[in-house]
Specification:
Blueprint lengths: L10 E6 L9 H8 L4 E6 H7 L1 H4 L6 E3 L4 E2 L2 E2 L2 H16 L16 H13 L4 H6 L8 E2 L2 E2 L2 E2 L2 E2 L4 E4 L6 E4 L8 E2 L7 H24 L3 H13 L12 H4 L2 H6 L10 H10 L1 E4 L24 E6 L11 E7 L5 E4 L2 E4 L1 E4 L5
Parallel strand pairs: 1-3
Antiparallel strand pairs: 1-2, 4-5, 6-9, 7-8, 10-11, 11-12, 13-18, 14-15, 15-16, 16-17
């Protein structure tokens, strides 16, 4: 449903290319060529106010976007509507046209990437760029796992392939033992590898754009996503650092951190932290922390109850039993789960 026009509103027609054809569908492409271009009608003053490219147009009542390519693709109607929604929210505090989660590009990683790329291409104001990122809590990835497309939340849920079933599962935090099946078929090793590459590629594109456009809420959200996707031993981003932290991501982040000695590792550490084992129970005794001046009693495991304040560790406000053994077996027990006692050092870059 379109918003109600206000009295005296000046109209601007936005002409879009027909984008009905899917890649590789020649018949659909032929049909599309016979279809009139898509047109939208918006408040001219709002569009001109929030896009310098629109303001630079000659005196006209039409803005022809049919020839504009973003990421080598024509701009779709949902993308332009999402941009208009962001603009109208700033001016009118209401949407230009309602979009559900399934059709709103801002709710998918690839869709948000296209939306921000379009907003950048028409030189939108910073408030519009920020408004495009107003639905981060609903943001999902949609990679393909074999013949099945799966939806991955980006708000702190961890995903990994079960070592016993080879199925993709999710786990909301480290201390919660319950897991949820995400994809039912077993995934062979090659499918898992292809899936991880897709996840890394989608995250890389949006992370690069977040850094380049300096959208801090989006940067922080993507950092949370990367941490959650890397936290388990078989997580979907484990071993994919090079695919996520590419040269262009390094260059866009922190004003050229790629040029610094060890710049890539500094950025990875700033997002994920550097992980060090605190103690080593093997015969080599190569511990990173060896106590000096502690009695035998002081080296015994520390036992206490704690309340989680981070969703990665458990449901906030729920007490959990903790047992920290730094100097014997180098483990930490959270509830019924046992993990290697490690120290994550970071961030290094503020």
């Amino acid at each position: 449903m379109y918003r109600t026009s206000l009295e005296g509103e000046l109209k601007l027609r936005l002409k879009l290319a027909c984008t009905a054809a899917a890649p590789g569908e020649a018949a659909a492409a032929a049909a599309c060529s016979l279809t009139p271009a898509v047109q939208l009608e918006a408040d001219k003053r709002v569009v001109f106010l929030l896009s310098s490219v629109a303001r630079a147009l000659p005196e006209t009542d039409e803005w022809d976007l049919s020839g504009l390519l973003v990421e080598r693709q024509p701009v779709s109607r949902p993308t332009v509507v999402a941009w208009l929604n962001a603009a109208y929210q700033l001016v009118y505090e209401e949407d230009y046209e309602a979009q559900g989660p399934d059709e709103d590009p801002a709710c998918s990683v690839e869709g948000l990437h296209m939306l921000l790329s379009f907003a950048d291409a028409v030189d939108s104001t910073r408030p519009v760029l920020k408004a495009c990122c107003s639905r981060l809590q609903s943001l999902q990835l949609h990679p393909q796992l074999g013949q099945q497309q799966v939806a991955l939340d980006t708000n702190g849920v961890g995903y990994y392939f079960s070592p016993t079933t080879s199925k993709l599962v999710s786990q909301p935090s480290l201390i919660e033992s319950g897991v949820t099946m995400v994809a039912t078929p077993e995934s062979p090793t090659e499918q898992q590898a292809a899936f991880k590459q897709q996840v890394a590629a989608q995250i890389e594109r949006l992370l690069w754009l977040a850094y380049r456009l300096q959208l801090q809420p989006l940067v922080e959200h993507m950092h949370t996503c990367i941490q959650a996707f890397s936290i388990f031993g078989l997580s979907v981003l484990r071993g994919c650092e090079n695919e996520v932290f590419t040269p262009r991501v390094l260059e866009a982040a922190a004003s050229g951190v790629a040029s610094l000695p060890g710049g890539k590792q500094m950025l990875v550490n700033s997002v994920r932290g550097e992980v060090l084992t605190l103690a080593d129970s093997t015969a080599s005794g190569q511990a990173n922390l060896r106590p000096i001046g502690l009695t035998h009693l002081q080296q015994l495991p520390l036992k206490f109850d704690a309340v989680a304040t981070c969703s990665t560790l458990g449901k906030p406000g729920v007490a959990v039993a903790v047992e920290l053994d730094l100097f014997s077996n180098s483990v930490i027990k959270l509830g019924h789960n046992t993990f290697a006692a490690q120290l994550r050092i970071g961030p290094y870059i503020q």
